[in-house]
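TASK: fixed-backbone design
INPUT:
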């Protein structure tokens, strides 16, 4: 079955069909037939036969408040001078889509947060690895440390120095090798950590630890503890407890001895679904938000908080978000007026109004294969821990998604971009990794990485930038599906000695082709776009940064500009000066016609013009036959200058646009 492009001739009439051809050439030597109306062409100096290209460009009119590329003539231009509104853009149409002006399609390893430039992000370096997968690392006190629990029952305080070292201070835990940890939280002074049978607690600054609360005689997975608004919330299966435990007094019910402390605990909220499990909580300004799942369905619950009395109403918790069927939730995080949800489908940013009502936001970073695991935040940003394919899609990298809450689009979504990314060492066989948590230590980010069954911490480098990164623009189509020739690209950039920026085109089929390598001294020059050579409906561009110098601030891109020409299929106008009399004679002196013929033909041609019907034109002089539309009809009544014509008539000037 044939396929058609919208820029090609229409395969079928959509609205106004052409009139049927009923004329058959007889003994009369006609020159031109328009549908079933035959004519003799009568050319003179005042009425020539003409054929010319129909106008296909409109005069530009710029009514914008400020001049821009739309004010210029000649080339069709498309430029970009900043990328700070983040990724996720499909088509780059700044003239019609205001939000697209400073956005792009996707990136890895580049920093777009500074208005007017693209540079490389800091490198992520290994500082700690453990054969026992780190299940969580959470919280820091005034000395900027992490409290980490692992799958072998170890509990450690971790501090960092520079790019290369992490100092571990183990907390003293007796007989705990068979009790892995699953969750850790801090109140700034003390830590609280859940293992598979109870809760450990102790001062952050000391290496002392107590088994403070036992909740089960058998092993339980999936419990969590979270310190919010002065309360220590403990999620145990489908119940949430608000517990008060001592950081110095140990429970009388130890790991290996029967008995629990649950008799003294009261479940403040128990979900009606017996399969339910709570997994996270966060503090809002006037409420606490908790989340969990049952099967393939996730929910967020709201607990009101009285700022005057500092009391929470756990029994009165209400569900405020029910995720679509099949979408589960891993983490919830309140920051700067929004509630971030890390789900199995990706990242959602949900506005919270002044009354504490939560509005389910759209999936901002939609990636069902790699869910969002955990969050942290500072400045104007929320950082989400997740996973992405490498460029070849052969393995995965643990990475962060950064959401800029200071930049909101008209549709209510926020600017986001891929931020720090952990890449396994290039001198060994790459191993897939995933980011399962993220924390802020001082002014740096720490990623919790799982790689090949081994856990580790990766910290944002103080001095090193990445050696490579890339950014891909949105698809450029100038607001029309008409084909274009993309001719030149001009990149304003700065590179160090040996640094390069590779420019590649990406066509409609996704084929990526390198067209230029920019190095020192090659900025701000028109580079010929040699591939693809044919006209395209749209094109995207990819810039790959390669840094080999000691100058970690280079290379940098400040702007780029694309120069194109439109390449619509040209249409032609044919002007026919037609003899239109009642009675006429052809070039072989054969008479034809009848009284009233001229006016009949004039009226029939005018009727076709008025309806806009397609007409079939046959020119026996040139051998051409085509379909067109009558653009203009002019009739001049005149006396016949010779014996070839008689009666009423004149010159009928018909202009046809060939389709």
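OUTPUT:
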């Amino acid at each position: 079955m044939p396929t058609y492009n919208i820029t090609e001739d229409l395969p079928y009439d959509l609205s106004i069909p052409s009139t049927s051809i009923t004329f058959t050439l007889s003994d009369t030597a006609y020159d031109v037939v328009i549908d079933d109306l035959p004519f003799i062409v009568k050319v003179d100096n005042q009425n020539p036969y003409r054929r010319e290209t129909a106008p296909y460009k409109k005069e530009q009119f710029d009514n914008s408040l400020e001049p821009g590329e739309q004010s210029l003539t000649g080339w069709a231009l498309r430029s970009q001078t900043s990328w700070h509104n983040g990724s996720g853009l499909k088509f780059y149409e700044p003239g019609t889509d205001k939000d697209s002006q400073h956005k792009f399609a996707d990136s890895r390893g580049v920093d777009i947060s500074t208005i007017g430039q693209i540079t490389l992000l800091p490198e992520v370096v290994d500082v700690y690895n453990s054969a026992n997968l780190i299940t969580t690392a959470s919280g820091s006190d005034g000395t900027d440390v992490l409290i980490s629990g692992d799958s072998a029952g170890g509990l450690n305080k971790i501090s960092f120095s520079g790019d290369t070292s992490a100092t571990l201070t183990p907390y003293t835990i007796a007989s705990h090798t068979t009790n892995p940890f699953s969750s850790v939280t801090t109140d700034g002074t003390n830590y609280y950590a859940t293992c598979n049978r109870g809760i450990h607690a102790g001062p952050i600054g000391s290496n002392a630890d107590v088994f403070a609360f036992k909740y089960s005689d058998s092993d339980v997975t999936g419990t969590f503890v979270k310190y919010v608004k002065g309360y220590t919330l403990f999620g145990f299966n489908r119940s949430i407890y608000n517990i008060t435990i001592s950081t110095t007094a140990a429970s009388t019910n130890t790991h290996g001895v029967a008995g629990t402390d649950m008799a003294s605990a009261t479940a403040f909220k128990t979900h009606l679904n017996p399969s339910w499990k709570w997994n996270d909580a966060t503090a809002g300004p006037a409420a606490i938000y908790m989340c969990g799942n049952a099967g393939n369905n996730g929910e967020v619950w709201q607990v009101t908080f009285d700022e005057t009395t500092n009391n929470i109403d756990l029994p009165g918790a209400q569900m405020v978000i029910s995720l679509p069927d099949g979408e589960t939730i891993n983490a919830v995080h309140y920051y700067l007026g929004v509630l971030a949800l890390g789900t199995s489908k990706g990242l959602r940013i949900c506005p919270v109004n002044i009354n504490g009502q939560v509005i389910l936001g759209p999936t901002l970073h939609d990636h069902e294969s790699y869910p969002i695991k955990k969050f942290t935040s500072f400045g104007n940003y929320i950082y989400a821990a997740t996973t992405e394919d490498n460029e070849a899609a052969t393995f995965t990298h643990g990475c962060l998604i950064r959401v800029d809450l200071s930049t909101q689009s008209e549709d209510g979504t926020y600017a986001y971009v891929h931020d720090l990314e952990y890449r396994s060492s290039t001198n060994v066989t790459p191993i897939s990794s995933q980011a399962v948590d993220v924390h802020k230590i001082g002014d740096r980010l720490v990623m919790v990485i799982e790689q090949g069954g081994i856990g580790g911490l990766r910290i944002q480098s103080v001095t090193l930038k990445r050696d490579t990164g890339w950014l891909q623009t949105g698809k450029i189509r100038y607001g029309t599906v008409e084909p274009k020739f993309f001719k030149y690209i001009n990149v304003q950039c700065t590179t160090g000695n040996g640094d390069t920026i590779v420019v590649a085109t990406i066509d409609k089929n996704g084929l990526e082709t390198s067209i230029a390598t920019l190095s020192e001294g090659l900025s701000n020059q028109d580079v010929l776009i040699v591939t693809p050579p044919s006209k395209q409906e749209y094109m995207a561009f990819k810039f790959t940064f390669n840094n080999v110098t000691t100058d970690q601030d280079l290379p940098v891109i400040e702007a780029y500009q694309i120069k194109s020409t439109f390449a619509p299929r040209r249409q032609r106008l044919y002007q026919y000066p037609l003899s239109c009399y009642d009675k006429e004679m052809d070039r072989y002196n054969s008479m034809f016609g009848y009284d009233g013929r001229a006016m009949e033909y004039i009226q029939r041609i005018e009727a076709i013009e008025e309806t806009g019907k397609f007409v079939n034109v046959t020119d026996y002089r040139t051998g051409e036959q085509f379909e067109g539309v009558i653009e203009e009809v002019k009739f001049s009544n005149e006396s016949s200058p010779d014996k070839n014509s008689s009666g009423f008539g004149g010159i009928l000037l018909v202009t046809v646009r060939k389709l």
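COMMENT: The chain is about 0% helix and 50% strand.
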